[in-house]
Amino acid sequence: MKKLLIVVLGWLIVMTACKKNSDSAIPVTSSSFMFFNGVPDKAYDIWLDTTQVATAVTFGKNSPYRSMRAQLYTMYMVDTSAPGNKRRIGQINLRNNRFFSAYLGYDSANKILVFNTLEDDLTAPKPDSMKLRIISLSYAFKSNGQAVGMDLFSQNNKIFRGIGFTQFTPYVTLFGDSIYHFNFRRTDDTTIIPHRSDFVARPGKIYTMVTVGNLLDSATFKTFTITHN
């Protein structure tokens, strides 16, 4: 009887160890996702599979980051003015310990919605610096039908060149405690696009500036800034 008890106890210990090893072989991983709406006069919900991750995001606004299990998801979008119409917009692979963002825009020339997803590098800059990138949801066309690109200047100092519709720049590291006098110019000449803004940068911050509207129309061209941290 004593030998049998020892055998049973040994079996239970082995099974418990196996279960722990099995559980640890499938670690719980997480990723983060946020959404920006660049479509005027619209609000949208965003779903990843069956989970709603953004609710009624209005024009020029972004949702907070939502923590999700790191895996492949199908993305769906719902116009809140037509809540019964869930539209599939693609897939996204959320990777472990990474940050991702999605941007919805509108090309009024072609009357289509555009949807881009990016990975956000939230590695902190140096304490006296900040990081900035540009995402263009802006459109304009020359008389020959070619799209107009844009450059970003701070006064007369060029920061980015040749940004086209739906394109995005890499992050650039700039001095953090400063006010930048931003202006956008056409890439094909020195014409300043009718929009200027003073950008107040803070040390340690990571920014995305999103442009929307017609590059050559001061009534529709706008910029919005997302602070990621």
Automatic annotation (TrEMBL):
Show which residues constitute the signal peptide. 1-19
Please name one Pfam family that this protein belongs to: DUF4397
Which residues belong to any copy of the DUF4397 domain?
35-140
**So which domain of life are we looking at?**
Bacteria
The question of whether Signal is a record keyword is answered with yes
Per the UniProt record, the source organism is Chitinophaga fulva
Asked if the Swiss-Prot or TrEMBL record annotates the protein with the keyword Signal, the reply is yes
Keywords on record: Signal
What is the protein named?
Answer: DUF4397 domain-containing protein
**InterPro entries in UniProt:** DUF4397
